[in-house]
Amino acid sequence: MARIIVPTDFSSTSVSALQYANYLAIVTGYDLAVIHVHDGYGNTDALIEKRGNLAARTEAMHKVEEFIRFNLSPSYFSERVPGIGQVPALEISEMVGAPAASILKASEENDTALIVMGGTGSGGTSTVSPLFGSVAQTVALGATCPVFLIPCDYGIPEINEMSVAFEYVQPLKEMIEKINFLRKPLDANVRLVHVKDADADREESKEVELMEEILKTGFPGFPVELDLLAPGDVAKELLQYATGRNVDLLVMGRRQRGFFSSLFIGSEAGPVIKSCTTPLMIIPIKTY
């Protein structure tokens, strides 16, 4: 069974991510896996302590169990979202290691469909395992599966509309294919969002390419709306669009070109990840 992974550092942002991931697991039918990555040392006064000792790992697992118990009661969604009362299959685990590296490794597993975690700069400060902030950006730009970033204290999760940002048609086709696992069960409306190129000839070529794809193949196969944004800084325009429309979900792709260069269009994904105040899904795509 495919699973949705939720890394946690027990911060308030972790709570938002957990509750959103639970919602996504319910609507998709996927399992929910909550993991806590820690340094392997417990709260002890011992002068010498073995990393990853049984006491430290037992303590970490106990914290995960408490976190689940306090923040994911069976009644949570039945009280807030009519018709949603079931709880997905739940797996909890702890692991010793570096948070970013451990989460990236988990993203490579065949049954990992999605990672849901807090947006950058919004997690609690932790000297042991500071999960969010730079780690969230590292995971979003390096995972082999889609990564869903949730703002702190976002509120009741709901996706009625998905806004998919694109520059060229081929990456857009790949993104549409990869969001179908959410779009179909949610029956969400889709808006295609494109920041116009300042070069008029180049922009005309992009728009013609899109229209030819629609006319020849019927792409994308379901009704969509097209939002053309004014030329400008792509990240800035997308952030203003997401905030101004109060979008339910902004979807971006990022090219798989190596770790630090894995960005959407040049360098747009990084700034959006850092500043987006709405739910954001980053999808790894091929380099075209």
What does this structure look like?
Helix content is 40%, strand content 22%. The chain has 288 residues and is an alpha/beta fold. The chain folds into two domains: 3-150, Rossmann fold (3-Layer(aba) Sandwich), CATH 3.40.50.620; 161-285, 3-Layer(aba) Sandwich (Rossmann fold), CATH 3.40.50. The chain has a ten-stranded mixed sheet, with helices on both faces. Helix 7 links the parallel strand 7 (189-195) and strand 8.
Features:
288 residues, alpha/beta, Rossmann fold, 2 domains, ten-stranded mixed β-sheet, 9 helices, 40% helix
Q: Strand sequence of the main sheet, in spatial order?
A: 3-2-1-4-5-10-9-6-7-8
The major pleated sheet works out as: 10 strands, mixed
According to CATH, the fold-level topology of the largest domain is: Rossmann fold
**Into which percentage range does the β-strand content fall?**
15-25%
Number of helical regions:
9
- Helix coverage percent of residues? 25-40%
| Overall radius of gyration | 20 Å
CATH superfamily of the largest domain: HUPs
User: Structural class, judged by helices and strands?
Assistant: alpha/beta
Number of domains: 2
Shape: elongated
CATH class term of the largest domain = Alpha Beta
Mean pLDDT over the full residue set: 84
CATH architecture of the largest domain: 3-Layer(aba) Sandwich
Distance between termini?
A: 31 Å
In the predicted model, the low-confidence regions spanning at least 5 consecutive residues are 76-83, 121-132, 259-266
Q: Compute the number of strand runs.
A: 10
The ordered string of helix (H) and strand (E) elements is EHEHHEHEHEEHEHEHEHE
